[in-house]
């Protein structure tokens, strides 16, 4: 699994999450086993442990990570078949379709402006462009044409693997005008690494949104 993490996962956009899942949920139980020793019943037992603690969605993520690993083993000629074959996702996931009302969106944007750069700017750009968080986090000046009001997202940063262009409104250009121009990654604390700490920042944003609601009540 070490080679899998180093050669395959490290090149994937979800590398950090997959690595975390394998280290926390899988290796403590299978760390001393060879690949050929893992059976279908072992995977089911692994998923059951995750489900029994109430983490149904995480059980899905564990299965996805393990399936990636065994598919990689097949591709490398290490295994002939995957022990994951025939195992269904432990939980059904439903897409979230709810959208914010105009008032809710206004409160979120006001809170984001209060928080400022970089997280507040990320939230504002996501709201104005409808792009994904990871795509915004990888935004560089090399991919932004300020004069042409265009942001080109490279295929390797897009979920579908295809490059696409995003028109930038005046509001987004104003946000970018306040961002540092000397760093590679625009929406980054140091310009070198993507923004981290989304959970804590989101909690702060929720607090600001709550205050906005009280102020306008």
UniProtKB/TrEMBL annotation:
Belongs to the 'phage' integrase family. This is Tyr recombinase domain-containing protein. Transmembrane segments: none annotated. Pfam families: Phage_int_M, Phage_integrase. Residues 95-217 form the Tyr recombinase domain. It comes from Microvirga brassicacearum. It comes from the Bacteria. InterPro entries: DNA_brk_join_enz (IPR011010), Integrase-like_cat_sf (IPR013762), Integrase_catalytic (IPR002104), Integrase_recombinase_N (IPR010998), Phage_int_M (IPR053876), Phage_Integrase (IPR050808). SUPFAM superfamilies: DNA breaking-rejoining enzymes (SSF56349). GO terms for molecular function: DNA binding. GO terms for biological process: DNA integration; DNA recombination. PANTHER family: PROPHAGE INTEGRASE (PTHR30629), PROPHAGE INTEGRASE INTS-RELATED (PTHR30629:SF2). Keywords: DNA integration, DNA recombination, DNA-binding. PROSITE patterns: TYR_RECOMBINASE.
């Amino acid at each position: 699994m070490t080679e899998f993490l180093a050669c395959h996962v490290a090149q994937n956009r979800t590398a950090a999450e997959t690595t975390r899942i394998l280290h926390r949920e899988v290796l403590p139980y299978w760390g001393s086993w060879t690949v050929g020793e893992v059976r279908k019943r072992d995977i089911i037992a692994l998923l059951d442990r995750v489900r029994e603690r109430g983490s149904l969605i995480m059980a899905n993520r564990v299965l996805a990570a393990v399936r990636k690993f065994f598919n990689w083993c097949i591709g490398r000629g290490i295994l002939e078949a995957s022990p994951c074959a025939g195992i269904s996702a432990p939980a059904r996931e439903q897409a979230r379709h709810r959208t914010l009302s105009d008032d809710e969106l206004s409160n979120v944007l006001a809170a984001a402006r209060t928080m400022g750069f970089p997280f507040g700017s990320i939230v504002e750009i996501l709201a104005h462009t409808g792009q994904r968080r990871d795509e915004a986090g990888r935004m560089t000046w090399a991919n932004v044409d300020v004069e042409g009001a265009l942001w080109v997202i490279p295929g390797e940063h897009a979920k579908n693997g295809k490059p696409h262009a995003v028109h930038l409104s005046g509001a987004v250009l104003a946000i970018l005008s306040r961002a540092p121009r000397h760093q590679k990654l625009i929406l980054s604390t140091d310009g070198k690494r993507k923004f981290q700490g989304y959970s804590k920042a989101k909690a702060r944003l929720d607090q600001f949104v709550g205050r906005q609601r009280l102020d306008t009540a």
